[in-house]
Design a protein that fits this description.
By secondary structure, the chain is of the alpha+beta class. It has a single domain, classed as Outer Surface Protein A, domain 3 (Alpha-Beta Complex). Helix content is 40%, strand content 24%. Strand 2 and strand 3 form a beta hairpin. The two termini are 14 Å apart.
Length: 108
């Protein structure tokens, strides 16, 4: 792996068509080209939607900024970034989405 995960960039593979549906706190995601369907939790679904909306490669910090809910952000106004626990959780989600083939790393 090149460099720490915090400096890596991820994106949705350009060739992938991803359909999704949200049911409560779960997301059903279908990757059309591979006829795969995945069930994602709320956090993973939010990260995937942030990347779909961005249409560009994002760092962990950028994904976090796009995916957090305004209510959560205002709940801790003194904290301008991710806590260690949030960063570790986000890294775990991104690595799992990459393993599933939903995300790919790109050069910075």
């Amino acid at each position: 792996m090149e460099g720490p995960l915090s400096t890596q960039h991820w994106r949705i593979a350009q060739s992938e068509v991803i359909d999704w549906h949200e049911w409560g706190d779960e997301f059903v995601v279908r990757v059309a080209s591979r006829s795969e369907t995945h069930l994602l939790g709320a956090a993973a679904g939010s990260i995937l939607l942030a990347l779909l909306d961005a249409r560009r490669a994002l760092t962990l910090d950028s994904m976090y900024a796009m995916a957090i809910d305004d209510a959560e952000a205002s709940a801790s106004p003194k904290d301008s970034g991710m806590s260690t626990a949030e960063r570790e959780s986000l890294q775990t989600i991104v690595v799992e989405l990459e393993r599933l083939g939903l995300l790919t790393r790109t050069p910075a």
